[in-house]
User: Fold these one by one.
Assistant:
Number 1:
Amino acid sequence: MSAEVKKGDTLLEVRNISLSFGGVKALQDISFDIRKGEIRAIIGPNGAGKSSMLNVINGFYHPQDGEILFEGAVRDHMKPHQVARLGIARTFQNIALFKGMTTLDNLMTGRMIRMRTNLFWQALWKGPAEREEVEHRKRVEHIIDFLKIQSIRKTPVGRLPYGLQKRVELGRALAADSKLLLLDEPMAGMNLEEKQDMCRFVLDVNDEFGTTIALIEHDMGVVMDISDRVVVLDYGRKLADGTPGEVRDNQAVIDAYLGVSHA
Amino acid sequence: MFYRESGDFKTSYIQDQQIFPIGLDRWFVAVVCVFAVLVVPFLINDYWEKSVLVPVLVWSMAAIGLNILTGYCGQVSLGTGGFMAVGAYASYKLTTMFPELNMFLVVLLSGGVTALVGIVFGLPSLRIKGFYLAVATLASQFFLVWLFNKVPWFYNYSASGQISAPERFVFGIAVSGPNAPPWATYLFCLVFVVVFAFIAKNLTRGRIGRSWMAIRDMDIAAEIIGVPPLRTKLSAFAISSFYIGISGALFFLVYLGAVEPTEAFGIDKSFLVLFMIIIGGLGSILGSFIGAAFMFLMPVLFKNIMVGGLGWPTDLVAHLIFILIGGLIMFFLIVEPHGLAQLWRVTKEKLRLWPFPH
């Protein structure tokens, strides 16, 4: 494992990733990097391969070609739960919370990878198990305060409205204290106010916890406002990469979004 | 109202994380436990032991076991009867091979053996889900019962193919065999059920229980936050089988005394335990007890009322009971699909506000 990665250094790098399902080429020769401490947006029209890209980073899909470097070390063929242990957390486009569990339990599950008391102490609920539970509870309560979801602490998340569920899901990803947070359309389906709240949370997470964030988003206003750098995908290929300003003025990007006349 | 949580302030996380966060619940459970241990043994007679208390305890144990697997971890299993048979035959082999072995140890080891068998039959769960897994676990049901019928080593080459519980003692008092006093067999089962019910409660509210529920509710998301699916599912199979094995051992050693596998551990037992947890409440330890009591005691109660009280003919009553039990199951599932434990939870929430509606 490499030395401590400093702010501004490369945290995650994907090199020449190609992924195909049978004849469908989902990703073709994609390379980009995510620097520590930045907010990196991945945008592109529907079917561009954005979610596939996140799934590759998460270890759900294994690309046919290319490699992924996390903190400078090549990482190959890991299972999703091993990737989680490296320090990569994720939220989903369609909420993937544990609906039968309370908000608190959802967040506590987010800290799974940091808990290690064995079956014996768990069964007794004394000594190390109790201490560990309290220690993690403190951290989780901190996140609950941060996201302002104190009042729904003990509500089963299945009963919560959509906007709050999205917030709890962010909380669960935060609870892992990960180095890299992948957000798959965190603002999809939200009204303006909820979007503003969510933007503020994303910025605060980045600011307060120093978490590096990579997000997929369709709302261009949001993307241009909060991200440091943007990578644009279309039909599995990388179209552009740069600051929001650069990307906005890129002709290929404008063509992809607005269409181009073939006359 | 007496039942309330107002004024019951929590000032530390330890207090907030108790098994029974409400003071009155704690007192109630303590009183029930003390009553069960100190009073019931003096009142118990043969009828109460054989027809009510011991079977309810044994079935509660099996229901807790299956609830861990199906209610908490979401893996449907129809192999309960087979796993109970493993517990029974393991205890039989252990206690006949090592007659001096402590009975508590015999029962625990039988649970351990069943846990190992459970892990093996849990392996397909990584690939198969839902109804398909239920069908796959049927294999364990039929294979295990077939095995215990087929291989004479398991029943010590006895001519009848049956196994019967030898007389064994704990602290000089018989707990198995025909001469065991009712209070001793009752206490023997009670110790296991109480201790392991608390352990189940602890496991399900901690890290392991949360990882089971995570797998149950959304396996992909569970994996992404670091829950290893294979290990988690197999741990649920192991611990669930451990409980079911203990219940099988008690069922054989203490309750039945003599067992023929096809008869005692058939597929109907797997369904019975599954119905217990569905009626009682999936994902609830209390529900396991309520479900076991409901499914086992309702027929006994109806029989006592109709034959004993009203003097109706036995065969008529036997058929009426089927109709009534079936009707009651439908009634409760329509009123509360999440089981009797949920009904109790809702009642408690209402009681908190009583007499005000909101």
Number 2:
Amino acid sequence: MNGAQRDPAARGRATAAVLALCVLWPLLQVAQFDPAALFAPANLATIGGFLATFVPPETGVEFLGLLAAATLDTLAIATAGIALAMAIGIPLALLATRSLSISQLGGRSRPAGHVIRGAARVLTLVLRGVPELVWALLFVRIFGLGPAAGVAALGITYGGMLAKVYAEILESTDPAPARALLAAGSGRLAALGYGLLPVAGDELVSYTVYRWECALRASVVMGFVGAGGLGQLMDQSMKMLNGGEASTILITFLLLVMAADAASAWLRRQVA
Amino acid sequence: MGARRGGWIVLGLALAVLASVWRLDLIAALGAGRDGLGELLRFVARFATPDLAPAFLATVGQGALETVAISLIGTLLAVIGGAALALPASGRFGWLARSAARFALNALRSVPELVWATLTVLAAGLGPFAGTLALALHTSGVLGRLYAEALENAPPVPEAALRDAGAGGLAAFFYGTLPAAAPQWIAYGLYRWEINIRMAAILGFVGAGGLGAQLYYALSLFQEARAATLILAMLLLSLAVDALSGVLRRRLAG
Amino acid sequence: MTAIRLEALGLTHPGGRVALAHLDLTIAAGERVAVIGPSGAGKTTLLRVLGASLRPSHGAVRVLDVDPWALSGPLLQGLRARIGKMHQSPPIPPRQRVITAVLAGRLGQWSVWRALRSLIYPLDVPGARAVLDRLGLGERLFDRCDQLSGGQLQRVALARVLYQQPALMLADEPVSALDPALARAVTVALNDDARRRGATLVASLHAVELARSEFSRVIGLRDGRIVFDCPAAQLGDADIAALYAGAAATPAMPEASPVRPRLTRCA
């Protein structure tokens, strides 16, 4: 037999490799990719000096008091933020989901229903399309520095996320019981409570708890733009190059995340 | 779970929310916000007219390119770093290396990108390279864990057969196990790229380059029209990366 | 020259079950030996001991004139590189291309750099193609293995062993998942290759007829002991009846329906 002796995939691979190089090389320039910068004496001195002060972590009573207050703030921001997100997300999800549409019964389709559903979906998209940090930055302009901006930003972004996922969960559950209730003349909320929630409830709660855990991390990050809590404290310590404080805050943050992990796992086990 | 126990949990959660509202003095903050309601509306209205002047758009384009570069190179570095840590973390070099690698992955992953960025800005100076490093560090932790799981789930027989036929460890891995894990590795990498393009857009808030630096600047100077353009650019960028990543995923990992 | 010498060899599994008991066996270089026997007779264990994959608990084993368990790690890998192994289900990743799967046969002889370079561009296209041509699979050289049927995949696994050009070939039930015509073709190909290169071949089989017609020597194994060991030509029906008498599994059972090796594709 005498067939091809060359790898037919080689041409494609070579093209892809050349293409990747052509894209990557300029991007490396744009990103100012320069590992040598890490070893430049000035940078080494800065980061080295800073990291050296990480040990020992700051344990002064006054600072620990500040830290405890900031930790409580962070927990409160996450909790209040999720509550606000539910207040925004639940109505949006109910508006956006098809399972509770009265107009879809019997094939009649009211244009108004379509418009409302579409609007709810677009609003959801915008709310979660903009990162929470950008929202936080905007709300800091409105509410001033402090936790209120963080709560509002969390509420908005996570409201959008909750709305999307709630709607998806509701639409993926069996619509028959709710349809039957709607057809029998009951209202939307009754159909939700007796038709959909018994089936989808666990999943909804479990996702919300998971989001609360994410909110905790996010609220720390938002502190960096002035939205209060641990993040703001860390930002201040970092700006002052106070490594001892920074390391105490980092350790607290890691412990907090681990505790939240455990708490959310426990809560989800309670519902499952 | 009994209904009574569920009731207690709900009550506890409701109390937690109330305590949070009280702790943060949110009612007062709301009052302050209402005083400025007119101000707020004017503030929002100024976002309605994005600044589309060509000169500014060119700057935005530069920022967008920088953001793409940060996200792509950061993710690529993370793919390499994650793979390097996934090998010991999947238990190939004994339990000691496994525990050490898992600890490193957890540490890398637990620290958010933005916090890494505050450190890399000190280590590498202000600019996109710091952002790239910050993304790479956090994402290495995320990908390393996923990659290790993919390795542990890959069928062990092909690699064992190659070892049994005299192949060296590295060659047996590349010919026996990697073909099974590679599609997942690629899919996870692309998925993280979609997240990182959003992250790269805001790392600039702490001086790590990209669109975020411009947005921070615009908002600090109350240039809402420019801020609106920048936010739009971020949205478009993340949509474009989602689409591109989807195409690549089908081509590479199908 | 002897390819294999076992002296008073025994293997007891950690649970205490005796898999092989007091085997004495010598196989000269170039012999083509079939091992037959009912399920659970210890055929797989024996082949794994011969392949330097499994360390016996008693007795002495010499493979290709060395004691594998006296060798250091790299030397042991060097010995294994001279032993080709076929398994009942081909140990080939589904997403790998045929050419890569075949070239992997020489990984034990290649340096790691050669191995990695071959992943970028296959190092020996003509060599892999020649082997596949002998098995009627030359046209599938650049296809992915998950596009092949079970029988084709087992032939790719055979091609890998042939490409390895080992001094000793060990095949554990290589054809019991194949239909009878293909089973014969694969067995013939193994024997032809061994004859041509003067290599030693040891294969465990369920199909007694194939053992008789294609191999030079047949060993009957039951309960970890050798029941008979004679030239294929001298093997009588009575020996075979005695070997399988009262055994739960009939000799023809597993290959009654050709089973396709399971191929899973990753999402």
